[in-house]
Amino acid sequence: MLKKELNLYTFGDLLHHFPHRHIDKTQVTPIGQVDPQMDFVQVRGVLQGIDIFGEKRSKRMVSQLKDSTGQIELTWFQGINWVQKSIVAGQAYLVFGRVSFFNGRAQIVHPEIEPYVAATAGQKSLLEPVYPSTEKLKSRALNGKQLGKLTQTLFQQISEKDLPENLPAHLLKDRMGRWEAYRQIHFPNSQQEYKKALSRLVFEELFIAQVRLNLIKIDRHKNSQGHKFVIVGDYFNTFYNKHLPFELTGAQKRVIKEIRQDTARGFQMNRLLQGDVGSGKTMIALLAMLIAADNGFQSCMMAPTEILAQQHYASLSELLKDMPLEVALLTGSTKTAERRRILQGLMDDSIHFVVGTHAIIEEVVQFKNLGLAVIDEQHRFGVAQRAQLWKKSKVPPHVLVMTATPIPRTLAMTAFGDLDYSVMDELPPGRQPIKTVHRYETSRASVMDFVKTEITKGRQAYYVYPLIEESEKMSYEDLMQGYEQVKSFFPEPKYKISMVHGKQKNIEKETNMKRFVSGDTQILVGTTVIEVGVNVPNASVMVIESAEKFGLSQLHQLRGRVGRGSEQSYCILLSSVKASREAKNRLKIMCETNDGFVIAEKDLELRGPGDIDGTRQSGALNFRLANIINDRAALEEAKNEAYSICEQDPNLSKPENLVIKAFLQAQKTKIGWGKIA
Ligand code: ADP
Ligand code: MG
Hints:
globular, alpha/beta, 6-stranded parallel beta sheet, 3 domains, CATH 2.40.50.140, Rossmann fold, binds magnesium ion, binds adenosine-5'-diphosphate
């Protein structure tokens, strides 16, 4: 029963089935004061007559609880036989439950009920735990309170040695011990003690998780085989000194140095590069690839979409045009002959760099000596796909994962804490912050006029329509309508418009895209296929239709398509007046900040950690008590402590760290707790 209903298998599970609240017996509401505003109430009174109505499935039991101020109705639909046996009319009871009002009368359905015993001076605990339970269990007399009794019995049978301390002494200075914390979280002496217990257990949870992540990372640094990039040679230096089109930003310099150090040690690099849109991640990828080439290794670079792969290919080819390096593009639509040539070139090492989509990880693609894999726009590639890359050479290639959207720091720390981590928190110089406004669809005409003035100045503009599912017929028609609408505002031949969407053939998409990139068309109407990576510095306006249908990170990505040149850029978010309050809140955040890291934090707050792209599967986020948003401060401390401990004592063999080691080992073998019958 416990197993099926609550997933409680062992005493350990029971111990970790934490109460969701505590009843304070001194907090009793006079029945006459119960009103519809109240959610849960605790009342005390004398039980009146018990009536049973109906038969079988429609059976219900009703009684009234009365005190000097009024009376409240108590109703049961389930477990009637059992409850009936355990209550007696004329006795005093303490009753807790959710109040509802029916015909103006207060009632509690399925109340928690127990004989009232006045709190006495010597009473051990005034706060009684109430546990999450289910109706079915309640009907079998295992309501939240009975679970408490079970837990209490459990505590009588175990002792401090069953819950040994797992934090080193220096972290216990202002913190409750482990055994004490477990007791106090279930049966606190006071609210204050409860809070102390909770914060101790939250910290422990975060700390242990951080220690684990650190140990995984240290193990990889020490034990994983990796290619050793010993030199920075001609390719890198020639490019850097002769062909680099701009001065690197401070952040770019720092990151390339980190990569350089990482790849020189002979262990596999597994680095996550976080940088806001437009911070110049592509250049980092190229520089890293040049280092690989200097050491005789090939590199691949994977992008999530064909358009993006093409664009990366085009910009790498342009940057490397005077260098003796062979670059190839491999996607799903690469023609057979070309494909054969590329596969051969990768096998015989005549191709140094290959840019592409998922096509690269297919079985048939084999490298002579793959040394570096760059994955752009990380969250669209699953872990399994990444693992495919490993198979492409005996020694796994170094991996550089570049994220499209910043991940909140707290999330990155927990979900990706075992990766090496670089942040580019600086945009190339000369960029002006994008001006973002929110307008209702009713003012579309004036928005179009504004776009016209920008185009007259020689700029270009994007018009984006939400196409949630590329196959969705409805939104496809919306897009076509939108296209006609834009056309009517910007008549040919004075204006030229190109359109891209997922239903087009690749060649068509490519042609339209190219026309916009080359400045032949002034307006690009499209769906979110233009979302990632596209780089047209002359484009200065981004208009997003039905902006309320997009999430924050997507809006930020789209906005990142403008503001890439030195001109002032604009992002106009059009929404229906009827958009929901949350949606309008998102748009407001967009208008307030350009900082992807701030937006990522807000996104996390609004959506919760489970919903952030790419982290859903991450077991690292399944905390029992901790919440990485509310417990940020604890997470920060846990992270710093775990880092310095693991750094100084990676085997956890110093006397003060043995408690951690013992705990981790015990967890591995999961000993110590018998099963609940
Ligand atoms: P993202 O980080 O979004 O992938 P990109 O790599 O596409 O950004 O770079 C955005 C634009 O900034 C490109 O036009 C690129 O050439 C330019 N860029 C990159 N680094 C610098 C720099 N240090 N100085 C000036 N422009 C730069
Ligand atoms: Mg990019």
